[in-house]
Design a protein that fits this description.
Helix content: 40-55%
Structural class: alpha/beta
Strand order of the largest sheet: 2-1-3-12-4-13
Largest sheet: 6 strands, mixed
Radius of gyration: 28 Å
Distance between the termini: 79 Å
Length: 279
């Protein structure tokens, strides 16, 4: 009987050892199959860009990427950081601004994809209605070339000024040829304009800065860019990368995630017309 039990014990012990060994081998194989996570660092304006990017984290995670978002409150640092290699991409600007920045700063940044459009709006400050604007009223507009032109085109569309023929997307206040109400155009840094509303009569504000200030283009604005305007057709917000990286696996994964149905639904439901997907 003792010999029989010894044989049984030996068989069980051997089986346990073999099972453990196989399990260990299996675990090793599974571990070797695990994908290494690669980081994607993207610079963005807090809203709507960073908010939209956050919706891609799980999508990118499934593709083996960890998304790190660095938020910037101005239009210069995200491009200089991208040029220096501190960022893999940025998402905050439209193509005309990117082109102008490259020209002025001698950078080599390109668009990897157009994601959305933010309608510009004229918002009330001390004056609550465009019809009530008095002679000499103060109007705040962005001071960077492309955004100032966009603001002036919107003012022109409302019949408040008239621009020199052909000025279009390069217009500055020097190109105003008719200003019946002698509006005083104040060129200010775009991010600062929402804070000046109490000091000016009206202000033309970029969509993202309006959102950050709690302003809703479709509810608070006195006038909004028409969907068929030059601005609407030209100023789609892009994902920018350093030239040569536009077709990298990392960039393609980011663009695919941003153009997913999940992100599109989020934009449409969350921003109520203040941000419009272009895919």
């Amino acid at each position: 009987m003792r010999k029989l039990w010894k044989k049984v014990f030996a068989v069980v012990l051997a089986g346990t050892f073999i099972t453990g060994a196989l399990t260990g081998c299996g675990a090793g194989k599974n571990e070797s199959k695990e994908k290494k996570t690669e980081k994607i660092v993207v610079g963005a304006s807090p809203s709507p860009h960073a908010d939209i990017l956050k919706q891609t984290k799980d999508i990118l995670k499934d593709k083996g990427y960890e998304l790190e978002i660095k938020e910037y409150s101005d239009y210069v640092q995200p491009n200089t950081a991208l040029e220096s290699g501190d960022l893999d991409a940025n998402y905050f600007q439209h193509k005309p601004y990117l082109d102008q920045f490259n020209k002025e700063k001698k950078t080599n940044l390109v668009s990897a994809g157009v994601i959305h459009y933010e309608p510009f709006g004229i918002f009330p400050g001390k004056t609550k209605n465009l019809k009530d604007l008095k002679d000499g009223a103060e109007v705040a507009v962005p001071n960077d070339t492309t955004n100032e032109a966009r603001a002036l085109l919107l003012l022109e569309a409302q019949g408040l000024i008239k621009l020199k023929k052909g000025a279009s997307l390069t217009a500055t206040k020097k190109d105003i040829v008719q200003n019946k109400k002698n509006l005083k155009i104040q060129e200010l840094e775009a991010a600062q304009i929402p804070r000046t509303l109490k000091d000016v009569d009206i202000a033309v504000i970029n969509g993202n800065y309006a959102l950050q200030a709690g302003l809703k283009v479709n509810k608070d604005a006195l006038a909004v860019e028409d969907s068929k305007s030059v601005g609407a057709k030209t100023y789609g917000n892009v994902v920018a990368v350093k030239k040569g990286n536009e077709n990298s696996k990392k960039t393609k994964a980011l663009i695919e995630a941003l153009k997913s149905s999940q992100v599109k639904n989020y934009i449409q439901k969350h921003f109520n017309g203040s941000v419009v997907p272009l895919f």
